[in-house]
Write a structure and sequence with these properties.
By secondary structure, this protein is of the alpha/beta class. It contains 10 helices and 12 strands. It has one domain: 3-Layer(aba) Sandwich (Rossmann fold), CATH 3.40.50. The chain starts with a strand and ends with a helix.
């Protein structure tokens, strides 16, 4: 049985992986939260690897506050980049396949079509820069790693666009949401499923993959779809806007070309509307309480 170590297990992706773990008898899972294992503490990293001796590690630990990173640059780089050097060294030592999750924010968003794995990276905010540096640490040092870039991740857990919209919807507020930033939302359950598939079908060496749900939308239309699926349309006055100032600049185009992962795993990726409906069928009770 292969031992799978998961860091950042209390984040939204970590929780989705925990939910799916029971379906994978071939894996012995070790879910570690930030209290169990601070990935920036190299001594703690050594102790975790020595104890668990993982065959596979899925790194869900990350600094994910995009606007906060503009003020907390050092912290963002420490978690998203520096910590990876220790992780990679121990993965190499234990012959562990590292599955690392990265982001569409490594791109500048100026391309008119979807981004492939080989497109040039040019992050436009500190969060994106820290995540790109983490990718480079892995690319330059790892023996066996899969870096999976994803976008617009949502679930019932924690603070994400979907949980924010549901919370605002419950308050019955007027909302203006940008309609000039494009991408595809990613149901974190789908990402968890594909990561576990990839864990069982890894190619040797280091590889980048892109994963988001299929189709294309903008934030306003995604919000509208959330309110429709949650039956909240009458509670919210939703309007499109082309201007919503944020501390960190956002890419205009976040769309990822997922051909490589689909062909490698021989698995289709559901459309974002279908996955949103699946989320509602599965999680509505938790999310709407
Ligand atoms: N959210 C998105 O829209 C999005 C988009 C593209 C890519 N991604 C990437 O997807 C991955 C998963 O994101 P997510 O949305 O699941 O993030 P999340 O919900 O913010 O979870 C991140 C987890 O990392 C933990 N963590 C933070 N610092 C740590 C440290 N020093 N040591 C150990 N654990 C630490 C956090 O611990 P606490 O529970 O203590 O806070 C949290 O549980 C990340 O790599 C992220 O960059 C996310």
């Amino acid at each position: 049985m292969e031992r799978v170590l998961i860091s950042g297990a209390n984040g939204q992706l970590g929780k989705c992986l925990q939910r799916q773990a029971k379906h994978y008898n071939e894996f012995e899972f070790h879910f570690l939260t930030s209290s169990d294992w601070d990935v920036t503490d190299h001594e703690s990293t050594r102790a975790v690897f020595d104890e668990i001796q993982p065959d596979i590690m899925i790194n869900c630990a990350a600094y994910t506050n995009v606007d906060g990173a503009e003020d907390e640059r050092e912290k963002a780089f420490s978690i998203n980049a520096d910590a990876l050097l220790g992780i990679v060294n121990h993965c190499n030592h234990h012959e562990t396949h590292l599955l690392h999750v990265s982001t569409d924010y490594v791109f500048d968003g100026k391309k008119s079509s979807s981004y492939s794995e080989t497109d040039q990276c040019a992050p436009i905010n500190v969060y994106g820069q820290s995540k790109r540096q983490g990718e480079q640490v892995i690319e330059q040092n790892a023996h066996h790693a899969s870096i999976v870039r994803t976008s617009w991740l949502y679930s019932s857990f924690g603070n994400n666009f979907l949980t924010s919209m549901l919370s605002l919807g419950k308050q019955g507020v007027d909302l203006s949401i940008v309609n000039n930033q494009y991408g595809s939302p990613t149901n974190a359950n789908d990402l968890a499923y594909f990561l576990l598939l990839l864990a069982g079908h890894s190619a040797s060496g280091n590889h980048y993959y892109h994963f988001c749900n299929s189709g294309k939308t903008n934030w306003h239309d995604f919000a509208e779809a959330i309110f429709e699926v949650a039956g909240m349309v009458d509670q919210v006055n939703l309007a499109p806007t082309d201007h919503y100032p944020t501390k960190a600049e956002r890419p205009v185009n976040s769309l990822l070309d997922c051909t490589k992962i689909k062909e490698h795993l021989k698995e289709e990726i559901p459309h974002w509307r279908e996955s949103l409906a699946n989320w509602y069928d599965r999680d509505k009770k938790d999310a709407l309480i």
